[in-house]
Design a protein that fits this description.
Layout: H1 2-61, E1 70-74, E2 79-82, E3 86-90, E4 97-98, E5 109-113, E6 119-123, E7 130-132, E8 135-136, E9 142-145, E10 150-153, E11 156-162, H2 165-178, H3 185-206, H4 212-234, H5 241-260, H6 265-286, H7 289-294, H8 296-313, E12 315-317, E13 320-326, E14 329-331, H9 333-345, H10 349-352, H11 355-375, H12 378-396, H13 399-419, H14 421-429, H15 442-454, H16 477-485, H17 487-506, H18 514-538, H19 556-571
Length: about 600
């Protein structure tokens, strides 16, 4: 009997262990999604750090090559290297070509090279004028000059000489040696893995709310990303750091929209795809400076039409009348006007000295401000104003003028606060949102709470609660990203925008035309200031203005405008074979060097 008891006891224990093991296995299956989310949050951090930090470091380490395009030989035997395509000539220390002769005006004229290598001189109405090969040069008219031509500027005789073949080849070799471009393949693979894991996590987090459009959207973005890089590589272009940042931020944007409105993800993907197409088309146009300048008046007209349409047909949303309904689509024309504002605000060297050009742009800026005031779009008006200040300073270098403009704007701002109660209310709650947490401070207090609950690594895409608060995917997107993706990734997104701004600023010294450098600085000013208003506004460090985070916030028009503005940054990239917005002439078509 004891033996039978032992046998049956062993069998019973074995069966019991089977049930216990089965129960444990079932529990493990149930907890599988939780384990996946717990692990993938750290993978997201590692991938984001790898993608963004290596791209940011590559952009900040890149050198802007300086080249000599010609020499201006003075009668005293001095040779002045001409290192830009557009050069201010005069006695002032700020001139690119400085001639220390009291008979030469501080800003005497301009010496400009075109895409074909032809030079021209324009007198700026100087006191003693200019004489070219014995003939007086008319003021404010470009006069072609050739190698060996004699220029009499004030009392100094100058002769233009081209660089030698040896020095030209040295320029090419120096450009190749100075250019260090990051190979895109590892970054593309990392972004693709990031996108796949995001889809898996969203499928787990959203459950029955998950939409098949999310999968299609991320697959589509990956296809667009790879197709773009492969196509440009076939055109002998190598620099994709700027685009990689934009593609990564756009991936986060798709995830943000999928979290808040799963069915709207595909619409956001279409906006990204259209943005990439717009980016490519704008870069193609910006390749030709003459064509770009010629399109200014078309840009003026387009902007005016869009603003008028906005004022006539727009509907009010979130306090501002800046949304136009076309079928089932809601558009913000003021976002597209940003592109026109930068396009017409940038100026070539010759235009910088034309008073009429500056007056036309100032009048256009005032028109934009008045329209935005009529639409009650306070946030966009502030962005336009700051961009106007940057463009005005880059065009004139006059601090006194800027102080006057800021003073007038300050008075205007006080009047707005006096007569626009909704703006005054936003300022009234600023810094005191916790005292009115369930009313005027509702959005900011929830944003700060959600961001704090996310910690460094976040709760996982789709698992946050801020998505249930109004404007979570637009005005409060920094809080949503902080909650679901973690503070590390949120800070990396901000650093990416700052990097683009630094890159644009560094292009000033190497830019071949003031047009490209002014446009790039203006575009990144919009990026940077929008980011500041979006981030600091959502956490109550600044008033909440309702502006978007470039590339990250949900919204088709905002995404389209972000990619369009990025084209101005790309056009200022003068690294060897880095930008298709710059022709391959004099660029070392063999494509050697430059990859890291």
């Amino acid at each position: 009997m004891e033996i039978l008891k032992t046998i049956f006891g062993g069998i019973g224990g074995f069966i019991g262990n089977l049930f216990t093991g089965a129960s444990g296995a079932a529990q493990a299956v149930k907890s599988g999604p939780l384990l996946f989310t717990a692990a993938v949050r750290w993978v997201f951090i590692l991938l984001a750090v790898f993608i963004l930090l290596r791209t940011i470091i590559a952009l900040l380490k890149s050198k802007s090559p300086s080249e000599v395009w010609a020499y201006l030989h003075l009668e005293n035997g001095r040779n002045i290297p001409v290192t830009h395509w557009e050069n201010a000539v005069g006695r002032a220390k700020s001139c690119d070509i400085r001639i220390p002769d009291m008979r030469v005006s501080r800003s005497h004229g301009t010496l400009v090279r075109d895409d074909s290598g032809n030079w021209s001189y324009m007198d700026l109405g100087s006191r003693n004028g200019a004489v070219i090969n014995g003939k007086p040069a008319p003021a404010n008219v470009q006069v072609p000059i050739h190698a060996g031509d004699e220029l009499l500027l004030g009392g100094t005789i100058c002769t233009l000489f081209p660089v030698s073949i040896e020095e030209h080849m040295k320029n090419v070799r120096t450009r190749v040696a100075d250019t260090r471009i990051l190979k895109p393949w590892l970054s593309l693979i990392a972004i693709t893995v990031f996108q796949i894991l995001t889809v898996m996590q969203l499928h787990i987090a959203l459950g029955p709310k998950y939409s098949p459009g999310i999968t299609v959207s991320f697959l589509g973005l990956a296809a667009v990303m790879w197709a773009y890089v492969i196509a440009l590589r076939s055109m002998k272009r190598k620099g994709f750091e700027i685009e990689i940042i934009a593609f990564f931020l756009s991936s986060i944007s798709l995830a943000v929209v999928a979290t808040v409105e799963p069915a709207g993800t595909f619409k956001q993907f279409v906006a990204v795809a259209m943005g990439v197409v717009l980016f490519f088309l704008m870069c193609s146009v910006l390749r030709n400076l003459e064509r770009t300048v010629a399109l200014k008046y078309a840009a003026y007209g387009m902007a005016a039409v869009l603003l008028v349409i906005n004022m006539v047909f727009a509907t009010a949303k979130f306090g501002a009348t800046n949304w136009v309904q076309i079928g089932g689509l809601s558009l913000q024309p003021s976002e597209i006007v940003k592109l026109a504002f930068v396009w017409v605000g940038a100026a070539t060297m010759d235009e910088l000295f034309q008073r009429r050009n500056s007056m036309v742009f100032t009048g256009f800026a005032i028109f934009c401000f008045l329209c935005l005031a009529k639409m009650r779009d306070f946030g966009t008006a502030v962005i336009f104003f700051v961009t106007f200040l940057v463009i005005s300073f880059l065009r004139s270098g006059d601090f006194t003028k800027l102080i006057l403009i800021v003073g007038v704007a300050f008075v205007g701002g006080l009047l707005v606060l006096r007569f626009r109660s909704y703006v005054a209310q936003r300022f009234a709650v600023w810094g005191h949102v916790w005292q009115d947490a369930d009313a005027r401070g509702y959005q900011q207090t929830r944003t700060m709470s959600a961001a704090a609950s996310g910690g460094l690594v976040g709760v996982g895409p789709g698992n946050g609660w801020l998505k249930h608060v109004g404007a979570a995917r637009t005005d409060l997107v920094f809080g949503l990203v902080s909650e679901e993706w973690g503070m590390i990734i949120a800070i990396l997104l901000v650093l990416s925008i700052i990097t683009l701004s630094i890159f644009a600023y560094r292009s000033i010294m190497a830019g071949r035309s003031t047009y490209y450098t002014i446009a790039a600085c203006a575009a990144t000013t919009i990026f940077l200031f929008q980011t500041i208003l979006n981030v600091f506004g959502s956490v109550d460090l600044l008033p909440l203005t309702g502006v978007t985070f470039p590339f990250v916030s949900g919204g088709g028009t905002s995404m389209l405008a972000s990619w369009g503005l990025l084209a101005f940054v790309k056009a200022a990239d003068t690294r060897q074979n880095a930008s298709f917005a710059v022709t391959l002439k004099d660029r070392g078509l063999d494509g050697r060097g430059g990859d890291e």
